[in-house]
Amino acid sequence: MGVGLYTHCFLPTSSTIPLRSNSFLFNPFTKSLQTHLPKKPANFSIAQASKCSGVEEMETHQGNSMSLIVDPHKIDPQLLQKMEYDALVWSSLHGLLVGDRNSQISGTVPGVGMVHAPFSLLPMPFPESHWKQACQIAPIFNELVDRVSLDGKFLQDSLSRTKKVDAFTYRLLGIHSKMLDAKKIEEIRLGLHRSDYMLDEQTKLLLQIELNTISSSSFALGCLVSELHRSLLHQYKQYLALNPERIPQNNAFTQFAEALSKAWSEYNNPRAVVMVVVQTEERNMYDQHWLCTTLKERYPFETYQVTSIKKTLAEIDALGELLPDGTLVVDGEVVAVVYFRAGYGPRDYPSESEWRARLLMEQSSAIKCPSIAYHLAGTKKIQQELAKPNVLERFLENKDDIVNIRKCFAGLWSLEDSNIVNDAIEKPGLYVMKPQREGGGNNIYGDDVRETLLRIEKEGSEENAAYILMQRIFPALFPAILVRQGISQKHHVVSELGINAAYLRNKTKVIINEECGYLMRTKVSSSDEGGVIAGTGVLDSIYLV
C-alpha cells in the first residue's frame, strides 16, 4: 500500500536550496561509476561549525526533561550543503532509491531511471515514552486482528451497510462470504501489519490513525533512512552535538523477511515459492527488491533457498490454476505464500480478471498475507466498530491489554450518529471523513467535510455508510529540511509514526508475534495528504528525547 500520511496543520514554507539529481552514469570503457551531483563543497572547519551549526535548546518533553536538538533552519548554509551532498551520495550507494517519475519505464524495468527516495535530512524528535508505548501494544493489535478475522459474522454484519454503497467492499465481502460458505479454514495465518500514530500536541496522547493489514510498504526504505541519519549524526557529531544511538535500530525488512521465510517453512514444500502480488507499474520496486533479496540470501533452508516470484493479478488469472488438493500453481510454480503488494484498492481491479485471481488465491491452500478476512479486519469501518464500548471485550480477555489498546483510540464515529454529524457540519476542521480505502489521497478534510455531509443529508441516500468520521489529530510542528529529486527545502512539518509488526500462527501455535521496526513519514504542515511516492511526504526516522 502506498505510504500515505494523514494530517492537517498549516504553516508557510520557506526557502529552496537547489541541488542537481543524483542519477547514475556508468562508463563501460573506464568502468567507473560517476554521480551527477553538485561540486563537493569546500572543507568546513570545526571552528566554523561551532559558531553556526544551529545547535540550540528547543523544548522536547519527556516528563520534565529537556534535550538539545538542532534547528535545521539555522544550520549554516555551507555546512548544510555539505550534509546534503553526503546524504545524496549515501542514498545512491546504499540503495535508498525509487523510480524517477520522469522516466517512463522506471516503474517496470529495474536499474533504469533511479532517483533517491525523498527524505528528511535529520531525524525527527519523538518522546521515548510514547515510542515504547507504540512498540508494546503492537503484539496486542496483531492478536486482535487475528481474532477479528475468525469472527466472520462480525465482519459481515459490521460491513453490511457499507457494501450497499461501496462496490469495492461489496466484492471483498463477496469473496469472504464464499469462503465462509465453503467452511474454508486458514490454519496457517500470516500478517505483516503497520499501525500508524500521531502524537496529539494538546493532550500529549499517542493516537492511532489506522491499522494497515494489507500491502504495508516502504519498510525497507524506512530502515535505510534510519541508517542514513545515524551515519550523518556520527559524521557530523562535532557539529550537531546529537547522539546517533538515540535513533532506534530499525530492522523491519529483515524481520518481515524472516516472517515470510518461517511461513514458507510451515507450508512444508521446499520447492514452493513466495509469490509477491505486484502492480503493473511500481516506482517503489526497490523496497520490494530489498525484501525479496534478503529473503533469498539470509534465510536458506538446508540446500534450498526461499525463492520469490512477482506476478500481477492479471498474470495470476492467466497463469494460475488450482489443483484438486487446493495447491496453487502459477506459471508452473507451486505457491507456498502469497504476499500482497497490490490488491488493496479498486484501481488494482480494472476487470473481472483481477477479481478471478483474488478468488483463486483465497480458495487455495497457499498462505495469504493477508487473507481476505485479515484484509477486511483492517478496514476503517472495522476500526470504528472496535472503538465502540464493550466491543474489544468480545475479542480480548486481558483487561490491561484492552485498556492499553483503548488508550490510543482517537474519536471514531459512524455517520448514523446525528449528533456527531451535526457537530462536524458546524466545526468541520475538527473531523476527518474516511472512506473504506487504503493508500492515501482518499480522506476528506476541512470545508469539504461540511459540504459532503450536507450533500449526503440533502440527497437522503445511504452513502453515509461508505464513510466514518474521525477526530482530527493536531501534532506538533517542527522545522525540517526535506530533500526530493536532489533539491532541499526548508519547511515546517508534521510527522506520522508507523509501527510494523509480524504475526504467524499455525493452528493453535503462535510462531511469531512481535514488533518489527518502524516507518516514520514527514510532510509539509500545509498539506492534508502526504504520500511519499505520490510526492507530498518524505521518509524520516526518529530521535528519542
UniProtKB/TrEMBL annotation:
Write the record's keywords in alphabetical order, separated by commas.
ATP-binding, Chloroplast, Glutathione biosynthesis, Ligase, Magnesium, Metal-binding, Nucleotide-binding, Plastid, Transit peptide
Binding residues for Mg(2+), per the UniProt record?
E210, N212, E438
The UniProt record lists the EC number as 6.3.2.3
At which positions is ATP bound? 210, 380, 434-443, 445, 470-473, 496, 523, 529
Pathway per its UniProt entry is: Sulfur metabolism; glutathione biosynthesis; glutathione from L-cysteine and L-glutamate: step 2/2
Q: Where does substrate bind?
A: R194, Q288, R521
Task: Family membership, please give it.
Answer: Belongs to the eukaryotic GSH synthase family.
Name used for this protein in its record: Glutathione synthetase
